[in-house]
Specification:
heterodimer, A: 360 residues, alpha/beta, Glutaconate Coenzyme A-transferase, nine-stranded mixed beta sheet, four-stranded antiparallel beta sheet, B: 266 residues, eight-stranded mixed beta sheet, two-stranded antiparallel ribbon, 14 strands, globular
Chain lengths: 360, 266
């Protein structure tokens, strides 16, 4: 790492080439974080041309098949939604059940999903924008323990805008996107970004590299058998993530007829040609929220936060809710079934009072 | 700590977190746009919306713009953040609007801060061998880059949190002082505006961009402000006393904004 800030170097430039041997004539600073999931845009295009198709086909598979086929040990994965909102928990549980290992995860406001996957030993490398916390509910005991002990590595830092613009650059088929965030920070020093002199303004500008996750999984309100998907809420960064990911698994509250999609095409957020698998999983975001359908299951989240304070407790939770059930349906019965889901629906519509059982 | 004379007769009828929420709320003007983070910033923005700033435009990084917050959102991405809102959009949209200049106020919490308002929310100790791993930037580095006026709530001012050098510079304040933000490439006319702690409200000296106290809370002293900081606190010619919350603000805060006491405590 350099000593003087890059803006005080007066014309001095970085070394001739970067870590990968690419000429760096106008680079003011190179972040020291690992460049995860980046490809030359020509290679990224070739991959799309060889692997994606505009031929519509029935993409419906079981959750076991989807995870088996599209998520492999060592892959770079990204989960849709935001924090505890609209998360494909069904896929998270299945990844744990299939004992995937050495996964690298996008810590893009990754909260409950990342905490479980790190706690279960599936993910051991993270690029962190917001990770190891549960927003107002406090910090994540399980994943923090793994990071502080060195079992899980933070390979790079970035910000929320920084992460989603990685996806934007990827979906645009560019190698980077310029931005005016992160400049001057250690977050940038530990990121995979570079700083150059903007040739239009002459001012320093951050270059955020594209990201192409090996597999993304996104939970939606409805889609058809091909994967054309609608989200009745804020899309967060799923528009971009869906389009830059090499493989995309859609889990959905319901599968609808193609006609319904064609009636209101302006509601489609994700088109079929970027989708590889469709899995119908009603309540598939539990214990996270699904906007307009069901609210967080605070008791369940509190149980995880409490148990995950110890390694034994973490294993106890996983044995009860993941390894101890054969399917997501069985899990739903275990967490309270129809009765609990109708309560969470009333909570979503503000018909039941707030609870905060995790509050200390 | 010595108490001011009027305080011994009349103990405040509010706790410190309620007071921080109140001070955060009054820092926000009506008909302005505010980008809020989780925790006390949401509480303060909600309180402002229900009192002096009914037309406050609240924006959440996950895509909610202009909600009427019906209850405290636990996440800045959930459905409450666009309840009766104007648009439920994307993070790319919110961050782009912010970068383009549409944000008046940014509102963040801080674990550790230096005299230039640089914030650490990533790690205590060495980055690769952390003593305590914190969540990281989240949207903070972005809010800190793009806000014309950044308000920071540092609820626990002490020598450990007001430090000479942050362990990790997550979010840019004024970096190394006057002019450094612009030299680093950040948008001009941006940066920290106010820092609110349990002792006082701080601003930044124009010439150096170093922290300066603006007002002391009732019953607090300059000695306490200095004793709870590792760097010298500048004192202006005129030192104000922070305002006392009107009963109506406290009632709304307790009954409507955070009735469970999740953030403000019981």
């Amino acid at each position: 790492m350099r000593h003087a800030p890059y803006w005080d170097l007066k014309g001095e430039r970085m070394s001739i080439t970067d870590k990968r041997g690419v000429p760096q004539s106008n680079v003011l600073l190179e972040g020291q974080g690992e460049l995860i999931g980046w490809y030359d845009p020509d290679d990224a295009r070739d991959w799309v041309i060889q692997n994606k198709s505009s031929q519509r086909k029935n993409n419906i598979v079981s959750i076991e098949e989807a995870v088996k086929k599209y998520i492999h040990d060592g892959d770079y994965i990204a989960s849709g939604g935001f924090g505890h909102v609209r998360v494909s928990m069904a896929i998270v549980y299945e990844i744990i059940r299939q004992k995937k290992r050495n996964l690298v995860m996008a810590g893009k406001t990754a909260v409950h999903d990342l905490d479980l996957l790190v706690g279960a030993g599936c993910v051991n490398k993270v690029e962190a924008a917001y990770s190891f916390g549960h927003e107002m509910r406090g910090l994540s005991p399980a994943s923090r323990r793994k990071v502080e002990s060195g079992e899980c590595v933070v390979a790079a830092e970035t910000s929320n805008a920084g992460y989603q613009w990685r996806f934007l650059a990827g979906m645009m088929g560019l190698s980077f996107i310029p931005a005016r965030t992160l400049l001057g920070t250690d977050t940038l020093n530990h990121s995979s970004c570079k700083v150059i002199e903007d040739p239009f303004t002459g001012k320093p500008v951050a270059l955020i590299p594209a990201a192409y996750p090996d597999c993304a999984f996104i939970h939606v309100h409805r889609c058809d058998m091909y994967g054309n998907s609608q989200i009745d809420a804020n899309s967060v960064e799923d528009f971009e993530l869906a389009r830059c990911a090499r493989h995309l698994i859609i889990t959905t509250e319901e599968i609808v007829d193609e006609e319904l999609i064609r009636r209101e095409p302006w509601r489609t957020i994700i088109p079929f040609m970027v989708v590889d698998a469709v899995v119908q999983v009603p309540y598939g975001s539990h214990p996270c929220e699904m906007p307009g359908l069901y609210y967080y299951d605070e008791n369940h989240i509190a149980e995880w936060l409490d148990l995950s304070r110890t390694e034994e407790g973490t294993q106890q939770y996983l044995h009860k809710y993941v390894f101890g059930v054969r399917s997501f349906d069985e899990y739903m019965e275990l967490v309270g079934g129809v009765r609990q889901m109708s309560y969470l629906k009333r909570r979503e519509f503000l018909q039941e009072p707030m609870t905060a059982p995790w509050r200390k | 700590m010595k108490e001011a004379p009027h305080m011994t007769e009349n103990k405040p009828n509010y706790n410190i977190r309620e007071y921080l929420a109140y001070l955060g709320a009054v820092a926000l003007e009506d008909r302005k746009a505010v980008f809020v983070g989780t925790g006390l910033p949401i509480i303060a923005a909600m309180l402002a919306q229900k009192t002096h700033a009914p037309h406050l435009l609240i924006m959440f990084e996950a895509g909610g713009i202009g909600p009427n917050l019906p209850e405290l959102p636990i996440s800045v991405g959930e459905s409450r953040t666009f309840h009766k809102g104007l648009i439920a959009t994307s993070m790319h949209d919110i961050m782009s609007l912010s970068q383009a200049g549409y944000i008046n106020y940014g509102f963040l919490g801080a674990a550790q801060m230096d005299r230039y308002g640089n914030i650490n929310t990533t790690v205590i100790g060495d980055h690769d061998h952390p003593k305590t791993r914190l969540p990281g930037s989240g949207g903070a580095a972005d809010v800190g880059s793009f806000s014309r006026k950044l308000i920071i709530i540092a609820a626990k001012q002490s020598k450990q949190t007001f430090v000479n050098k942050v362990d990790f510079l997550t979010t840019a304040g004024y970096l190394t002082g006057f002019g450094a933000r612009e030299k680093a490439g950040l948008p001009r006319n941006t940066g920290p505006h106010r820092v609110i702690t349990q002792i006082g409200v701080y601003g930044f000296r124009e010439a150096t961009k170093e922290l300066e106290i603006v007002s002391l809370h009732p019953g607090e002293t300059l000695e306490a402000a200095q004793a709870n900081s590792s760097f010298p606190i500048h004192i202006p010619e005129v030192l104000e006393t922070s305002p006392t919350p009107p009963p109506e603000y406290l009632r709304i805060l307790r009954e409507e904004v955070d009735p469970m006491g999740i953030v403000i405590g019981k």
